[in-house]
Amino acid sequence: MPGTSPVILILGTGPNIGEAVARTFASKGYKAALAAGHSRGPDSTDNQLHITSDFANPDDAAHAFTRVKQVLGIPSVVVYNAARIYRERLGSLTAGTNVGICRHGRRVVTSASRPDRSAFVAACTEAEADDGRLQAVLSRYFSTWKTSLMGDDLSRLQMLATHAQIRDYIKVIWLEDETEFEEMLLPSKSSVIWPRYESGQVIAEALGVELLKSMLAAQQLCPSRLEIRDKHTTDTYIDPEKAAILARDILHGTDLAVTEFMLRKESPARIDISVELSAEHQGQGIGFSMLRKARLYLSQDLYSFLAEDVLLHASALKELTLSFCQPRQMWYTPSFILHNATLPALEKPEISTASLSIPIIMAILSKSKQSLTGFSFRLMSLGKKSTWAELLSRICNEFPHLTWFEIGNLSEKSIRYLQITFPGLDKDSVIGEPYKNGLKVIKRGPASAKRISWVEYVGLDANHVLRIVAECAVATQL
Questions:
Q1: Which InterPro entries match (predicted)?
Q2: Among 383, 412, 445, which residue terminates a domain?
Q3: CA geometry: angle at 357 spanning 356 and 361, to 5°?
Q4: Which helix (H) or strand (E) holds 337?
């Protein structure tokens, strides 16, 4: 008879990936069903079931699911590791089960939008009247709640928000659809793929965004973090600012206190947004005024939520990682930076993948003359008759409290692009003791013509060392 332990079904169990996955899940208390195209003999046990199936045959695939349900119970994780799988019936085979898909053993995805019910009930039963153990169980199952904000996912979230004993355990609300499963399931049968405009932006009105906002505004849910994962098919470019609009739609009007906003472009087809919140300040009109750390991507959009709502309303911002999304030949000249008096006093700015001018960079740092302790410039090009020697010299003269800096893969644009190198910077005659102790240089290029293109320094003499680096900066033709 099926038990209360969670079950993993592995379709295509070889001696390497398949059995390794089975061993890993067994160590976590899972019962494993291993299905393969060859017979493994009568070695099934109470915790492990072996099934012979040809997964190109729909009847065999259906038999594997039925057999597992009868012997071990409904699988909470399914790994599709077989070389050939009949795909047309996958949706019907997994209907009504709490399963995720791992294609070819590359990753295992469990449906965190709802815990495995049998395992949850068993854990609560074991805890019985022990409040400490019961709290640990509730925290384990509900601390991170994944939802697509669509269909049954939305109903479950709404139900949880009404249960005071459970909702307080939800610390992370994770928003994500199942775009990565499109190749495995028939699109017509999928109800958890976010609809989008032609621009790629998620249509928030088609999701339960307003319902989520009402639960947050009423403090039925008081998470310490929001996570948004925006995924496209691999042949579609994601504009980071378009992905950030979903975060904007959720944050506007919910009276949350944001302490950290991190946008990461993990791949050409995936953007991750993490928003740290102060639950104790929720509902106090804080907004972005407590934001101390941010990672942003800016584009040429006339209206930028990331710039105008986050960057310019974060008076406490100290650590800023800033990247730009524009064609290489396009220079970023945002008027809201050049002519804005509300920029924060930064301590640790990091700027990368940008084509900027000295006035823009100095405007970003304009309120940071006494607060700046270090900076990082990477994969950047200067234009508008700007030179790196001039910029680095100005920074070491105008920002007196530097303790570190990092610069690398820099260029200048006049008629053509010129690469910045720092010849001689590794020689004692150029920079001697004690300054060398905190200095790191990286050389690139062929063995016969290696050039210093990357420089890092950590130490109390950062201003002095930066002055030497500025004097060594040379622009050479690429």
A1: NAD(P)-bd_dom_sf
A2: 383
A3: 80
A4: helix 335-338
Is residue 39 located within the same domain as residue 120?
A: no
Per-residue pLDDT tens over the stretch 354-397: 888 898 899 899 999 999 999 999 999 988 788 999 999 999 99
Identify the band that residue 115 occupies on the pLDDT scale cut at 50, 70 and 90. low
In degrees, rounded to 5, the angle at the alpha carbon of residue 121 between the alpha carbons of residues 212 and 46 is 130
How many domains does the structure of the chain reveal? 2
Is residue 102 situated within a structural domain?
A: no
Question: Counting every residue, how long is the chain?
Answer: 478
Q: Is 424 domain-assigned?
A: no
In tens, the pLDDT along 301-344 reads 555 777 777 777 788 999 999 888 765 555 555 666 666 667 88
Tens of pLDDT, residue by residue over 117-158, are 667 777 777 777 777 878 888 888 889 999 999 988 899 899
**Contacts for 394 with CB less than 8 Å, ≥ 6 apart:** 358, 362
Q: Which residue has the tokens 């050389």?
A: 443
Residue 436 lies in a domain: no
With a cut of 60, say whether residue 187 has pLDDT above it. no
Range of the structural domain that residue 247 is part of: 114-181+189-383
What single-letter DSSP state applies at residue 60?
A: H
Do 68 and 167 fall into the same domain?
no
Mean pLDDT value of segment 180-199: 61
Dihedral sign of CA atoms 58, 60, 66, 69 in order: negative
Paired strand residues for 10: 34, 79
399, 470 Cβ separation under 8 angstroms: no
Do both 195 and 47 map to the same domain? no
Q: Look at residues 383, 398, 431 and tell me which one is the last residue of a structural domain.
A: 383
- Asked if residue 364 belongs to a domain, the reply is yes
For residue 440, is pLDDT > 80? Answer: yes
The verdict on 171 and 247 lying in the same domain is yes
Sign of CA dihedral 121, 6, 49, 68: positive
Name 416's bridge partners.
none
